[in-house]
Specification:
The complex is a heterodimer.
Chain A (H helix, E strand, L loop, with lengths): L2 H25 L14 E8 L3 H17 L3 E8 L4 H11 L5 E5 L3 H7 L2 E2 L7 H6 L2 H7 E2 L2 E2 L1 E2 L6 E6 H6 L14 H14 L6 E2 L8 H12 L20 H15 L3 E2 L14 E5 L3 H8 L3 E4 L15 E6 L5 H11 L2 H11 L6 H6 L10 H8 L12 H16 L4 H18 L5
Helix pairs in contact in A: 2-13, 16-17
Chain B lengths: L8 H29 L18 H7 L2 H32 L6 H13 L2 H11 L7 H9 L16 H26 L3 H9 L4 H12 L1 H16 L3 H6 L11 H11 L3 H25 L8
Helix pairs in contact in B: 1-13, 2-13, 3-7, 3-10, 4-7, 7-10, 10-13, 12-13
Classes of the chains: A alpha/beta, B mainly alpha.
Chain lengths: ~425, ~300
Amino acid sequence: MTKHRFGKLFRRISFLLAPVLLLSLSACPRQERPPGAPPGAVVLTVWFHSGREVERVTILRQIEQFNAMQDEVHLLPNVIPEDTYNEQVQAAAVAGDLPDVLEFDGPFLANYAWQGHLRPLDDRLGEEIYDDLLPSIVEQGTFRGEFYAVGTFDSGLGLYGRRSRLEAVGARIPTSPGEAWSVEEFAEVLANLAAEAGGDAVLDLKLNYKGEWYAYAFSPLLQSAGGGLIDRTDYQSADGVLNGSESVRAMEQVQAWILQGYVDPNIDDAAFTGKRVALSWSGHWDYPRYAEAHGDDLVLLPLPDFGEGTRTGQGSWCWGITTACDHPDEAARFIRFLLEGDNILAMTEANGAPPARRSVIRRSPLYGPEGPLRLFAVQHEEGYSIPRPRTPAYPTITDVFERAFQDIRHGGDVQAALDRAAAAIDEDIRASRGYP
Amino acid sequence: MTRLLNDNTPAAWLMVLPAAVGLGAFVAVPFVLALVLSLTDLRLGSPLPVEFVGLRQYVRIFTDPSFQRALVNNAVFAAVVVPVQTGLALALALLLNRAMRGMVVFRTLFFMPVVFPMALVAVVWELIYAPGPGGTLNSFLGAVTFGWWEPRAFLHDTFWALPAIMALSVWQGLGFQMVILLAGLQAIPEQLYEAAAIDGAGKLSRFWHVTLPQLRNPLVFVVLLTGILAFRVFDQVQILTRGGPHDATTTVMFEAVTAAFTRQQVARASAMTVVFFVIVLAITLAQRMLIREEREVA
């Protein structure tokens, strides 16, 4: 390349770079007060997950309302994609960039609290709100005696069924958690439905889902059998619980359903809406789709009882105040605002989830006394739901259990798969010296 | 031979500097860090003090059946994919290296999978591999074998899962190798073929004695690159099988990412990446020794 051409190229490049440099220079001084913030207001950053559009829009609107209705606190919202939410939180913590108010998925609470990222809410919510919360919301927010975070909604897990097909095989249709099918009855219903369907699959276990679903949806079944993911007396070992005879028996049942061909692989997530199967093991988020596909034929049932009564999952995204926040009282004011009845109602009407406060449940068209999803609320109110293990080891537990579930699904020896999972969990706990 | 140090030395150092800084910051420093971290018990975000644990992480991963299986899977994957993909790429390049109307369209079509993100490719292939007689591949095989083929759940079968991942990887990566070999083919002087033809060489012997030797450097490059990429398999596994069934498709990268980001065990993941680095380095060195790339000596 000749000198002349080189000079020309260089000029061209610097021409291109100049605006970039100018931009980065002008962006340098950090703005102390964002535009729109009233003078003297406390500015708080808020992180929440992008989720479904209806949820995102609702939260953003509520933040705007909060900013507009008073001038002491100004919120700066920041939407974070949920696939890598935990990674972003961990990275922000390392960089000292945590927001003031943080929304996060319930099962991570123990991990964040143990890592020292969360500040206890203490009694900042006030008795009126606290006493009105669902027991499952309080349980999810509590770690080692401190209350750290509160959700504006919970989640619901159960069996959706098609009334016509259940009635065609003469199945009893339970309407409350106490009337749940026993595991034997459930196996019989499956067999009858399969015979009626000429050997086609009849049950959807959402085998297309990946990640958190397995611990959320199937650990209640271990609990119902008298087992579990970990020994909950001190959270120091999974050995003897996850691979104990009760858990093994429960997972052998699930394996039997799958190997007998009762379960649809559901790759297109349309096993139930496409009317291929009669039963779908799923959560509140599927209700709008299912109701649209089946109308009056849709029934909501409790999960089968494996011996100790039916159990179900709980927990969802919740709000906490981080240790990076210098104004916890102002932050709590925002969380109290989100928990106001009308705001909870707006959110839960948008996303279909069970409201976190009993007083709101009574007003909710979906969860009220005559609501179609009443069962989900009853399960939480009457103590049938069990939080996922509240231990900092949870990220490992959920990953290990998902792998074990996949091995079992593919016909592996149940005892061996659960032995391996329990050993991996115990190794993790030992490596962190028992998470002191 | 020029002296080691001469008047040009400062200028030479200056010119090396940008590349050296880049290599140092993005290759050397992370590797040394991984090496150091792998000797500790560091966990992401843990408030506990970090302790030096010597080689304990290495003992753990080498006694972990999933990691052992990952090493075997990577080896099998490379042993099959490298020759198959290179062979097919060469065949395609030969096929497309002729003057014909509309050739650009064919070349573009065959190159297209390379442009698609792996996430998209994986989702499409998930539908192709769908279980039951309704799955695309199952119904195709059923039709061509007149119903003799029994439908399988390819991605959930301990025998078929890894070959299924291999097939889609070959399909996706093929175009890139093809383009490199195509460029190599077009750089071969026409006179060589003419001379060979005058000497009475047939089509086959022109391929053996002119095309292959002339393609040596592009082929070495393609084999090396495919070999290294074969050890980096991750996306398709993460999306399609998550290492299952029964670890049949797990890979070193998948195990490392799971350890670091899902289970927050950074030290353990570091040990895995160090092992990964050593393996890739060993392969590269071995290949360089076996087939020396011919260089034009300046």
